[in-house]
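Risk register update: the risk that structure generation would not scale has been downgraded. Supporting records follow, first protein first.
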Amino acid sequence: MSEPQRSLPEPAASPGLGAARVLSLLLHPFAVFTALVLVAAWQLDPAALPKALLGMAVVVAIVWAFVLQRWRSGRWSTVDASRPRERPLLYGLALLLAGGWWWWMGGRASPLSSGAAAAVAMLCVAGLANRWIKLSLHMASLLFAGTALLGLWAPGAMVLLLAAPSLAWSRLRLARHTLPEVLGGALLGALVGGGLLLA
């Protein structure tokens, strides 16, 4: 038997919808993780910054091409993989590419190694939880980056953390997530980022 479809109602058109889309785009996990890598490399291993950004560009390009292919072929309802059944492939690809990026950066020898491992752990938890709840990866990535950056660059961390309520509103306004999914994603990101900060 196939899994029952769990979908959220389409948001009603309004001026707030455009703002919600812009916020979700500006604070997309691609943008947040790229900013995190940039700051972490700048603070921990400046010589590796070009290599880190090249690796991130390849990761983002591959994931984005995969997402567009799934959406344009009609296999996904949105570019956000909004239905829980659409997410396992996305998680699998993200984990594979995160492992590749970790290897590209030098594995355990890289000062960025622990951050990459923490991001992989966060994706694993979100992927396992997907059976019961479709955690917001937008919120998880933002809270992870904001919390982890507290030890590297506090002003940047505060900007990300202060943006969290607006991003939460945008995900709800776009009907991409329910309130428990938004709060659960935020909690996951904060816990994993906090663990990285304290490690």
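Supporting record for the second protein:
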Amino acid sequence: MEDCAHVLQNCKNGRVGILADVFHMAIEEPDMEPVFERYGNSILHVHLADNNRLLPGKGTLNWRNILTAISRHGNSRYMNLECAVLGDRRLELMETVKFLRQYI
């Protein structure tokens, strides 16, 4: 995220921001809350996927903490699912919406 912020700072364009990808952040960032606290105003979009690239809640990430950090510190108006869906897509997506609404 630090690299993204550096590029953004050098870009000097008010219409450019950071896309935070939770899957990659889980690999590269030891703790996501400080990242959202530090760079939240620059984050305009968030990709949601669990640590196994499945739907949120289908892996081991702590979504309560992640989504709380995003809502507390973030400027993101947009989130999308960027992950695989196993099983019946309709049912899995309905379950995921219910899961995410607990924390958003």
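DSSP finds five helices and three strands in the chain. On this basis the risk owner (M.S.) recommends closing the item.
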